[in-house]
Amino acid sequence: MNPLAKSILCTALLLGAHAQAEFVRTTDTKLDQSTGAFVEGYKGAASWKVKPGTICDVVPQGREDIVVAAMNAASREADSGDIGTAIKSWATIGEANKGFEAEAVSLLERAKLLTARGQFENATELIDDLFSRHSSYPGFQQAVQVQFEIANHLAEGERRYLGGWFPWFRDQESSISIWQKTIRLAPNGPLADECLIRTARLAKERGLIPQLTEALERIVSDFPASKYSAEAIEMLANLRAKDSMGPDWDQATTLEAIDHWRALAEKFPKDARSSQAAAQIAILRDRAARARLQLAKFYWYNRNNPEAAKLMANACRNISPESTAAKDAEVMLAEIQKNPDPPKSIADRLLGTYPRPRIGTDVKPAAVGDDLDSLGFKKEPAKSATETERR
User: Would you list the domain boundaries of the chain?
Assistant: First the structure.
């Protein structure tokens, strides 16, 4: 656009800047005269117009026509493939209508064009300006959609293009921050759960465990009816199962994994993922039971404590009665019942067995002296309320 035309356009737009309205873009349709139905797939010319009933009453009618004409001109430039000129035209519209809805439309349209050219950073900056300066913009969800698509492009490994032509480095992980921003702007919007599951998938692929855990837990807790809920529960169950490094370690995460698999089977019985829930639960319960069996063996063979060993062995049987660990626990209980003294190791023969803990049999309370009360405090005679304490 030459300087003279730009000056004329700015002057015209400034005259129409007060026309605060809701702008909508419509596409022409084609009617089939023989059938009386619209032709499917026909793409006619698109044009901007002001939605009826949205013009401010204090603005004279007809002022908004100048802004609409400029918007149509910018759209035609974009449709013809002249993206650079279209971006400049939309920028001119925004400058001439600061604070009004035409500026919001300008920011959104420029963001769309920049996204198409791979200028993702510039597009996100414009969307941030739109959110900060036009929070009540009717096309808010369109801006959220554009931001969501930018994150998807980055996650798929597309390159940024500096200036719209120079390819830059790929940065898949940056899409996570954009998805998170999308959720903050529309936490209850239709894209929130999809942003979370996409975050989880990418975080799993890249080994970003904190981001993976947070995304999965938010889906399970905040979006239980989401179509991605079953996938999130399965991923969370596998994640928790991997957190435990075996029966020799703490089994809290193993029990959490069991709960997730059980929830998956109960909430989504027809989902294909639920078919493996029973087998996974059996494996995890055997692991948790074997952890108790390991403790039982430790108390029996290393600490000469048959009572603690029996307690852990019974806990093993209760966690997973049908597991192989439970059968091993039954063998140990029978061995302890037969002979309460564990077999001696070489160290026991050389250094002696570990001293067995004493089991208290006297459960009667210890007697206190006559000068002590039941709590063990010294008894003193009661004093009069008016008596002065003497030293």
Answer: 1-98
